[in-house]
Amino acid sequence: MYLTNGKEGAYFSSGYRHIEGMKKYSAEAICELNPHTASRYGLKEGEMIWIESRKGRIQQRLKISEHVHPNVILAAFGWWDTEAEDNEYDWRKYNINILSEGDGANCPATGSVQLCGIPVRVYSEEQSWGNPPH
């Protein structure tokens, strides 16, 4: 499976997530999977799932969506926890930057790292790359 990402229209990159009025648009990181893919992996609408690459892993809440290709997960871009106690806002728990190698070809327009086409796996329970789900 391959990761791609999308930005919510209410936010500017990773900004404005701390504004209470903006949370009505999207209060947390939502990823989307095709219903057949979700079923194959035993994943259910609304649960927190792990998205893992060889570099790291994050969690996002699952939304089932017909418009996503069966071999793709559409992950939310730029998330961090506005309620977190630490001064880094737990960004390592939700942000897709954790999944990228950060090397190789960068986007020529922005200089940003590659955040699509990353091989990933998805699961709902505690696992690691070396222990694939059934």
From TrEMBL:
List the Pfam families: Molydop_binding (PF01568)
- The organism's place on the tree of life at top rank: Bacteria
Matches recorded under Gene3D superfamilies: 2.40.40.20
Show where the Molybdopterin dinucleotide-binding domain sits. Answer: 1-85
Q: What is this protein called?
A: Molybdopterin dinucleotide-binding domain-containing protein
